[in-house]
Amino acid sequence: MSGSLLVVAPPGPATAVLAAVRARLAGEGWSVGAPEPFDAAVVDAAGLLTAGAALDEVLAALARALERVGEGGAVVVLGDAIVWSPGAERRGPPGRRSALAAVHAAVQEAAVAHGPRGVRVNAVVVGGLGEEGSPPLLRGDGPAGVAGAVAFLCSAGAGFVTGETVAVTGGAVFR
Amino acid sequence: VNDPSSRAAGGRRPFDGKVALVTGSAGVGIGRGIAEQLLRLGASVVVSDRSARRVAEVEGELAEEHPGRVLGIPMDVADPDAVREAVQAVGELRGTLDVLVNNAGHPGLAGLDDHDPDRWRHVLAVNLAGVADVVAACLPILGDGAAVVNVASLAAWVPTASAQAAYVAAKAGVVAFTRAAAIELAPRIRVNAVAPGFTVTAYTAGLLAEGRFDAPVDAVPLGRHGRPEDVAAVVAFLAGPDAAWITGETIAVAGGHGMRS
């Protein structure tokens, strides 16, 4: 499956994860940016929060993205493993962990609200990539791994997966 | 068929040349769906189940469409000696395993008001101890980079029938076992699970019809019940290269029913 893809991310250079996601989906034939309504959207909530967006701005960005995805489409929200890492609040700005938790709740609300029109909404908890936090159990290319998971969640293979949060952390963080 | 995971550069399929063992795959439900999906994606599949007769039948049926890539090996996962013997046969006939799917299970509907200790232990033996027995038996033949996928259940956190306590406890055990095994076997082997919600098979449709099971479709945000192929697609993802950065995880395949916080 491929189609048109909306990417919602802060302006400026893409993170390694977002660059890998874009490259992977473009390689599968997804067309980024048009036409609308979109067949899928990737909302980099963790990136928006890092760039200084307030929680209500991130939730509004998710709501706008959902409106722009057509029937049968898929939305994938990128979170951060800090949400399941008590004590890791030192990473990132204050309030980041609670904001991410709210984003995950919003993903579930959206899955219920948009399920009847066949739109699936899922989140990826990204982790195990940096120097901080627990080391991953696996060895390998973390950003490519995140991209693989996002590609799957956008695909028909994930057609019965919605409201779900998938840990893509190399085993660094469990729910 | 439109799944990008079935497509790869040069027409290669993601599981070409790979060998998979799927327990509980000679029935009418999820296990058989998983075997069929892995075959479509190129794998050689060892079909396994308790009934030697059913294994032989399904081996024959699947081999018609996928000649040379189907092997049937009977195995009762509740019997550790039988598991060791069956896995030894798999190793002798197929060599190294790339994918192990622990799907064999038993619904074990039994109420606490009618508690039978032997039945309770049997449900745990099939659904939980059997998973550990098969994983342990397979360790010598699981190759580097192999993937284990366990079939847990949404019931691990959302019991959907009464008289299901043993099954629910066992499936919650599978979710926890999946994490523990992921830690123990990393980085050589990834271990993940799927948690299907109510999935329509000939068997579960019968339970619904008999009123032994309640699965209101309006509790499912996507507005339908699951199908074996829904689960099989997620199993194939977790078993394959796109899940290379995922271990210890359980993915619900339930159309949004019973979401975890």
Commentary on this structure:
- The complex is a heterodimer of chains A (175) and B (261).
- Chain A is an alpha/beta fold.
- Chain A is 36% helix and 21% strand.
- Chain A is built from five helices and six strands, in the order βαββααβαβαβ.
- In chain A, helix 1 packs across helix 5 and helix 3 runs parallel beside helix 4.
- Chain A starts with a strand and ends in a 7-residue tail after the last strand.
- The model of chain A has no long low-confidence stretch (mean pLDDT 94).
- Chain B is of the alpha/beta class and 261 residues long.
- Helices cover 39% and strands 15% of the residues of chain B.
- Chain B has seven helices and seven strands; from the N terminus they run βαβαβαβαβαβααβ.
- Chain B has a seven-stranded parallel β-sheet with strand order 3-2-1-4-5-6-7, sandwiched between helices.
- Chains A and B meet through helix 4, helix 5 and strand 6 of A and helix 5, helix 7 and strand 7 of B.
Name its key features.
heterodimer, A: 175 residues, 36% helix, B: alpha/beta, 7 helices, 39% helix, disordered N terminus
Question: Largest interface by residue count?
Answer: A-B, 45 and 40 residues
Radius of gyration of chain B: 17 Å
**Mind describing the biggest β-sheet of chain B?**
7 strands, parallel
Quick check: average pLDDT of chain A? 94
Spatial sequence of strands, sheet with the most strands of chain B? 3-2-1-4-5-6-7
Q: Encode the helix/strand succession of chain B as letters.
A: EHEHEHEHEHEHHE
Based on secondary structure, the structural category of chain B is alpha/beta
Radius of gyration of chain A: 15 Å
What's the helix count of chain B? 7
Proportion of strand residues of chain B: 5-15%
How many beta-strand elements of chain A?
6
